[in-house]
């Protein structure tokens, strides 16, 4: 069988519109808005010949496809390659790339470790770290928003939350970039990321071992589930690894994107400062507006339909979450960043049983940091052009020169 980017060749139904755009081209990844618009305008389901896949980008079809875990499975990979046909670069995630009933077992362990009750116990550390970091940055005339703040904060608090004894901030950030670039085609971002996979992946695996964790962190809770017979010891190590792949890079991206949003929309920063109760809704709006995770794929596990178009078993479906989060049919004025929008139902954390298991802790980190910034910083001003970093699944900044103007 001839595979295309690791999946079976697809002959689309003649009634499905064709979208001749490369979603993983460097220019598209840096500025996806024209692609999102073209995808939604083309139809509820389109064929993308560049990768021989189908794609959804309108809100309703994206939500339905992403939520239907029985028809559109994750266990065959959330990227272009089909795990039934091609071996992935690492053992599949047992929380992200798995279906029920196995997913139910591991999801229960992770949900308990990352519950709102657990996150509340971490908030004092999140707030103290944010206070110290922001105070230090306010002494500088300019900062590099990605390195100095977006990366510095989660790589300080998250390893402590997990209970890691070994901390390498660069490896923690790069591991997420490797995992998320790996879901795309054999393009430049993937090749560049995978060139470091052996070094970084080896460090991550060692750092997740039980002996390299404290007895009072999130990692210890996962290993306690192994002691209780809920999962195996090997599965515990893989779940701790999932903490690091999903819990650092996406939060770095969320913080960087939030800083960018407020630097570009000063009136919304003033609105947040005037009403601190908007901290949580403002973060949700950042997620909707910038979609830190822009694309995941699903695989049709049976012959089925999307929007009345036939979809054969084995077809890869590109779920473009970034396009769904900017669908004017759902959001009315999606191109406007409003901290009072309260965008319930946005797709930034996914949907259904595969909604982001770490969303509580991500919200906790962002709530702590934004609340401290709103109290101490009068304005967040651009100090140069923002540079976006091409990534096959993440919409992240590479550089963000800023001035933080104190109160």
TrEMBL record:
Keywords: Heme, Iron, Metal-binding, Monooxygenase, Oxidoreductase, Plasmid
One example GO MF annotation: iron ion binding
Keyword Metal-binding set for record: yes
EC number, UniProt record: 1.14.99.15
Keyword Iron among UniProt keywords: yes
Recorded family membership: Belongs to the cytochrome P450 family.
Protein's name according to its UniProt entry: Cytochrome p450 CYP199A2
Taxonomic lineage: Bacteria, Pseudomonadati, Pseudomonadota, Alphaproteobacteria, Rhodobacterales
